[in-house]
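Annotated sample (chain length 256).
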Amino acid sequence: MSPTGELAGIGVLVTRPAGQAQALCDLVAAAGGRPLAFPTIEILPVADPEPARALLVAHWDLMVFTSRNAVECSLALGFAGTWPRVALLAAVGRATAVALTAAGRAPDLVPSERYDSESLTALPELAAMVGRRVLIVRGEGGRALLGDVLTERGAEVAFAEVYRRVRPALDALPISACWRAEPGLVIATSDEVLLNLVDILGAAGRESLLATPLVVISERTARTARELGFRTVRVAERADDPAILKALIELVKDTP
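Output written by the structure step:
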C-alpha cells in the first residue's frame, strides 16, 4: 500500500537534540512522512555551574530565558521555577514559555509573532530600560543580539550560562549511503545544528545534502544555508513544531 498524507512517505531528517525531537517526529509521521532522527547537537550541563547559580538567586528587574534548554538546565541546578526575586519573566519562544509555565511561573513577556530575540526586543515593555537589571539565561556562547540591544537601551545586563552545546559522535555512513532513498527533506533549527550536520556528513555527503530541500526557523540560518550552497531553503513562519511541519508540506507542494 502506498503511503498517504501530505508528506506521503517522504523521509524527513530531524536534527534536533535527542530527547527534544519526538513531538516533531510524531507530527511528521502523522502527515505521512518518515521521520529520521539524526541529532547533530547535544545539550550538556556547564562544567562549573556555580557562577550561574549565584546569578539565578539574585534580584532582577527582568529575567529572560532564551530556550527550553535554559529553563530545564536552570531547574536542574535546584531552582523551584517560581523566581520570587524576579519582577518580570520573559521567554524568547513558545516552547520556552511552556517550560516556564510548567515549572511554576508563566512568563510575563513572550513574542506573539516570530519567536526570536528581535521580536522580544520589539515589545513595548522593553523600550525603556535605563537602570533596569536584566539577567539573560542561555547556553555558553549564546547569541549576543539580545544583550547588546538591552545594554544600548540603558540596562545593566548579566548572563547566566547554564548549558553547553557539543557535537555528538555520529556515524554518518549509514545515512549517507542511502541518502537518495531516505531523506527527502531536512530540518535545521539553528546555525550550529546546520553547520554540525554539514561537518558530520563530510565531503562525501555534501552534494546530496545541499540538493535536499531544507526547512529552517530564522532568516539568519537561511542566509547561512544559502552561503553553504543549499539550493532550496524555506523559513518556517515560527519556531514551533506546527509551523515547521507547515513549511515541510509547502516545500513538497512547491517542488516539481
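Annotation: The chain has a mean pLDDT of 91.
Annotation: Residues 191-210 form the longest helix (20 residues).
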